[in-house]
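#dry-run=false #mode=assembly
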Amino acid sequence: MQCNYCEWRCDLANGKLGLCRMYETAEGGIRERFPHYWSSCIPARIESIPFYHVRPGSRALVIGTMGCNFRCRYCSNAFIAKEDPAVVRERMLRLSPAEVVRKARQMGCAGIVFNVNEPAVSLPSLQELAAEARREGIALGCLTNAYTTEESTELLTSIFSFFNVGLKGMSATFNRDHIGIPGVEPILRNIRRLAAVAHVEVTTPIIESVNDGELDDMARFLADVDPEIPWHVFRLLPEDEMKEARYPSVDRIAAALDAVRVRLPYIYFHNFVGSEWVNTHCPECGTLVIERFSLGCGGDKLKACHCTGGSCPACGHEIRLAGDVAPTWQPAEVRP
Amino acid sequence: MSRAIIDAREWQKVFDLKTGATLAAKGPLDDLVRGVQDRHPYPGDLDAAGNRWVTDTAMDLLERYDPSFVFLTYAQQYFAGRYTPLTEAQWGATIATVYREVERFAALSGFTPVIVGTGDMAPLVAPIDLTHLDGLALCTHWSARYAGLHEPSPADLALLGTLPEIERIVPWQQFVDLLGPCSLDPVLLPKYVLVARAGHMFKTVGGAFRQVRRVPAPAYRIPVSGCPEGVSDSTEVRSTVEKLLGAGRVALIFVEGLGIENFPWSCREIGNGREWYYYETGDAQYLTITTGRHQVFEYPPGYRYFEEDGPGKEFPFSGYFRSVPARTIGADFGGRSIAVGNRSMFMHMAAGADISVECFARNLYNQGTMAVIHRDDKA
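#status=ok
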């Protein structure tokens, strides 16, 4: 029996486990092995996840599970994503959907965001969580590698209303050698699909001399999908198999990005403390409309939002935002 | 104005510590400090070279700034002990490494060392799961022994009362009466403080759970080396160091994760709390020693820390700290002072030294280093 959640389409017949080790066959179908086990359940600033264009200044409950369908050599969460889920689950939280939603409420979270690993490895649990959250008026978002089948991509759209998709590289060589997948085509297909129906931001970790030469190709592709799609370029913090790798040069990557800024107005360069490339400028007139601090792995945060009614205060151009600025960040006279 | 210099490896930038605003104008110590950071990239919290980095960086800074008071913190063994599966032999080797590094600093610098062990570590027996309560249980800042319980139901309290792993359930006011006062907004405070028995830790909401191997062991008393007779409590260490500074140059050295059982120097045992409460290694313990006063309630166990992270929050590079603590030993000392350590986020706040250099790591992810220049008028 073939698993249809991601593009690996692993054979799960006769007790076999797929690459992610999170699904198995049972009673003629495929079921999750460890439903409702969570590797994370913690409040965080939405900017720290990162979502720069979703409800700025709001707090979200960050959740994750375990296992992954990628084998990124630089994985920063290998102790969750690459370890055997059957072992890892011992230290996880087991919470029902109602409990997760209650935690979000108790900690004043406006949304719930799946982070840490890949949501495709836990879709049935997430479907149940989404149903519960929807009843409580809480929106779900996620970070995903988008290596999902077309059917499962539709499932993602039924669960989540905003996405940050990891576009790690374009070339087959990079994807094979550093990510462990045969090619990027399914990811490109799914970015198009997700961006057509939901808010999408994109994140690309940059490894100098490995995938920095693909920046222009990625920018071209993204601009073709949506000319105002927000793009986060991460200075890779090498971990796991690449722990000894040199940190990418901030100046060289920033210069390379300058060359592609003509293609996309919302390009950010961060994942290091003190980055100066985390602010949003109006695509129309260049006015500074949202200011942020970059705290690297400490999580970015909002510094000020100058938008008026979601638009540039200078020219009125509508700034790409999914949801309003959090009430605490709005001027007192306009707070709901 | 305190300045923060971030070194994210091969890239440095200077900020106002309080506002986070970028600073273009150069201070008199900037080049000196930036050079030190550039020469000493941080190897990482779990890297065996983490403690060597402390000694090397401190010596480099010391030779260029010529301080009379040095504050050091060696923490690599705490991180390694907490999160890596060390055998007893490996743990012993880790202790030997920190011993060598502290001794190397003392020999090279000629400073009189006063060495404080923040408390032993013990293998984790089992976590206490508090995630299914009706109320909200929170552990803050890596605490294993203490959790705050917010809005518990009667059923929660009844259940918790049956758990043998919980040593005591303390109403908040009782906690304040023991160590207060507390001026924090009551909205942030728990109704109860839960106290775990030795070897246990609370499991509450949290992020990306790493396998915990060791937790802080009971530390009603902690070791201190280099203090004269008569010192019996952690609140008295500061005045002792100040007396020693009257006669020469002194280094106050924190060694995390080592207590009376594993402390490799001859030592005195001093109090580390009050009655049932003892400090785990962390900002409250640091501040108690550097100010000479109990400091539990600025950032107390189990408070709703995330509620403070809004528009008015200053000091963006200092984690949950909302101000520079007053009357720390470094801030009050009239001579030159430096602090170096691989305990990130709060060392520059707790030491109050003219210049601090610390790693910038969060949840063991290495982002480089941060230097803080609180004062440059002694340059």
